[in-house]
């Protein structure tokens, strides 16, 4: 039997946590041969709720679940962590300025980055889900100088999955017919879901759609504002779909992406495609051997260039804001 992989989940008592933990414990994160030990991090007032979820996890008698530890101390929860899913974050509440939001999240992601640096396993891989995901990931990464920067990623896989579904509906095909549909930039309303490099049954997606107006006025805003539409309809923000995307992101990172395809992830820029080095921006990426790499050599036309630049400018502003607040 294999040694269990330590998977730390923050915000474990929240709604994404509730949708995520059972899938991790059932083997969907790392595969059917890999036992997992769950490490749940919550704030003190939510520890009891996390214990309740842990009781339910016990009651599933998952063969792959080797144990569950619960803590409100990052130094305990990240101890020996091989995979960390940073879900818990401070949401924007009414009347909160962006600076307040960034500051509140800096107060979460700075100590978590420090704890990861101090106590996580050498092969630690981090996915930040909590918003603003790209900038929270940047804050954590900057406070973990001993961890390779490439091990810190932010989630844009939900945006990608939303884009797959919208495109498949439009063309009356299934998501299985779609490939290479990337999200560029920030996980925010400025994100750019790119049909110009995507393929549908081996043909260029934008050409197959052949409707620039639909791409600009319908597809892009529908994908970018889907989170708000879910809140409007459900009365709560996306949870099961967000958990599903987190599973997809880590699964593909660890197990590799399909030959000839790519996926979307927020990764530290190396300057590719004119994205300033150091920013955590979404790119088309492939994974082999446990490392995400930015897909190189895609031709970017003027339309895509302007969209990518706008979203990356927002990321640079967020970075400048957290720098101004002394958070990085
Ligand atoms: P919930 O409010 O249901 O749960 C958040 C949990 O985090 C709470 O239980 C809270 O106690 C905990 N928490 C807060 N501070 C913590 C800390 N310092 N350490 C550990 N736990 C802490 O939110 P939920 O719906 O689960 O969403 C979680 C985050 O995901 C939010 O920031 C949300 O904006 C973000 N999302 C990101 C998405 C993405 O695609 N990147 C999509 C879905 C989601 O909106």
UniProtKB/TrEMBL annotation:
Q: Which residues form the Lactate/malate dehydrogenase C-terminal domain?
A: 156-320
Q: Mind listing the GO biological process terms from this record? A: malate metabolic process; tricarboxylic acid cycle
What are the binding positions for NAD(+) in this chain? 11-17, 105, 112, 129-131
The answer on whether this UniProt entry bears the keyword Protein transport reads no
Q: EC class of this enzyme?
A: oxidoreductase
UniProt-annotated catalytic positions: 187 (proton acceptor)
Task: Kindly give the InterPro entries that the UniProt entry links to this protein.
Answer: L-lactate/malate_DH, Lactate/malate_DH_C, Lactate/malate_DH_N, Lactate_DH/Glyco_Ohase_4_C, Malate_DH_AS, Malate_DH_type2, NAD(P)-bd_dom_sf
List UniProt keywords, sorted A-Z. NAD, Oxidoreductase, Tricarboxylic acid cycle
Q: What is its EC number?
A: 1.1.1.37
> CDD domains, per this entry?
MDH_chloroplast-like
Family in the record: Belongs to the LDH/MDH superfamily. MDH type 2 family.
The entry's protein name is Malate dehydrogenase
The species is: Actinocrispum wychmicini
